[in-house]
Amino acid sequence: MPPTRLTLALNASQTKRTPVILPPNAPRDPALPNSCQELLFKAAKDKLRLKGKTAKWRIFVARNGLEVLGKEGWESALAEAETKEIVLLISAGEDYVGKTASASSSVPKGNADCTVEVLAKAAFVDSVSLDQLNTTARSLPGLVHAVGQPDLHPGTKFPIGAVFVSRGWVHPPLIGGDIGCGMAWYRTRLQRHQVEGDRGRKVAERLRRLEGAWRDKEQREAWLNWEKESTAGEEWDKALGTIGAGNHFAEIQVVEECEASGNLEEGEVILLVHSGSRGYGGHVLKTFTGDGESLEEGTEKMEEYMQMHDSACRWAKANRDLIALRFLACLEPGEESWVLGRNENDSVNDDDITVARANIQERKVVDIWHNNVEKIQWPPSPPSPSSSPEPLPTPSHAYIHRKGAAPTYNASTRTPLPLPLLPLPGSRATPTLILRPLFTPANAWGAKNALSLAHGAGRAMSRHKALVSLSQKYKNPELLLQPSAASEARSNKTAGEGQWAAGKEVNGGTWVVCEDRELVWEEAPEAYKDVWEVGEDLVDSGVAEILGWCRARVCYKVRDEGKS
């Protein structure tokens, strides 16, 4: 990647400007040392003689007045510099000077009457998250209902663990860059005793050659085009079959308890994969947010976005399937069905890939997207009109935007059907709950929770705070990678006298594979909320029931072996 060239000008005196060259390795995340933001602050001091406390300084995109905030904001702003010269304005704290994109556009104001539902009581939700939820609900056009799930936590500008229902408008930034991110459960043929205790460490050691490109370009395209063409171009397709960084993972879990109706058996060993569209989704977001944040239904740009969005969702689902194939090739090495999961120089044709993809579907328990937008009938209807004691409003359609929220229905069916179960993971070394969505008159057949549930425990600390505080608490990060007292502290926390409280005290922890030192601290169990409190809130809100829970025995984050 070449250096990034741009012009930096004073917001209050825009004729005062200086050229800046940002090195290719400068982090986009402002929380990291020597970030792009830090380098521009230094240039403003040295060359533009800007005074004052840098904590108050702000940066705007000159042509539209959008403030550059967080990692996603910097990635979006600097993406334009690859094709044209850009000007960034730096202020000492004052608002943008100039005509903003919103002021010059025909985008209507938000809906002050948008309803907002927060499902959290036991789980802590900070004021920043609530402010983001309420501000977003009443500022973007077309929004009619917003829901904060119990895992609600702050995002760069929009909250995570939130759902927004909109009529007539689609808002790409609400979804973010990891379009199609989601989770899938797959069955394995491992036995419980094979993954417990020290055997779990041996299983973790077998998880090799899972980073880097899978096979060649033609085989990746064949995998992606199995049912419908979903290739994104080689720049993005080469990451197919890889987990990625951040909070993505694959876990080998044991079903500790599950009601008979849960479609999982106690003692069964399953694989949970959490990953998305890798860099492709971020590319889609940047393509459609250059001139504004909202796309009106029926416009050519909105239709183009939805086509690329849907393609990214299919790409992400194919990615999870390929990750599962690669893991099963390690976990069940004698199984011929998974031979394609190994990166070997053998001859492979399209029929082989078709068979492998079909075999993966047979092992799949459930697969959902929790970062996406879907067109759905709104308000939702009961299974039959006679199920409702009250007259029902005439339904039309709306767009459900999910940023870290799991759907309660299978959207791929002709008439969306309720999902029988969903995973609610905590963090590594903590349980994953098995949920069943509820559709009742009390929750307006899913309208209360916007046809969605929490997608995980949700962060209790920002990545920066976790890195700073937990790196001091656990100076040796190896303590967090094995079933030690540190990793089990949150895992064995007692939830109270509820149905599942005693079950959580099962012995044995989690072996973690993570060769990114900073990620070990950022993703530590203590950086997340208590998943049992999140589940309790969903139950108390009348939108879900807990069918059981799983314990992770091996959690795979990343190895340093040729990552893409």
UniProtKB/TrEMBL annotation:
InterPro entries: RtcB, RtcB-like_sf. Mn(2+) 1 binds at residues 178, 248. Pfam families: RtcB (PF01139). Residues 376-398 are annotated as: Disordered. It is an enzyme of class 6 (ligase). Keywords: GTP-binding, Ligase, Manganese, Metal-binding, Nucleotide-binding. Residues 379-394 have a biased composition (Pro residues). Its cofactor is Mn(2+). GMP binds at residues 247-251, 370-371, 455-458. Binds 2 manganese ions per subunit. Gene3D superfamilies: tRNA-splicing ligase RtcB. GO terms for molecular function: GTP binding; metal ion binding; RNA ligase (ATP) activity; RNA ligase (GTP) activity. Its EC number is 6.5.1.8. Mn(2+) 2 binds at residues 274, 370. This is 3'-phosphate/5'-hydroxy nucleic acid ligase. The active site is at residue 455. It catalyses: a 3'-end 3'-phospho-ribonucleotide-RNA + a 5'-end dephospho-ribonucleoside-RNA + GTP = a ribonucleotidyl-ribonucleotide-RNA + GMP + diphosphate. It comes from the Eukaryota. PANTHER family: RNA-SPLICING LIGASE RTCB HOMOLOG. One of its GO terms (biological process) is RNA processing.
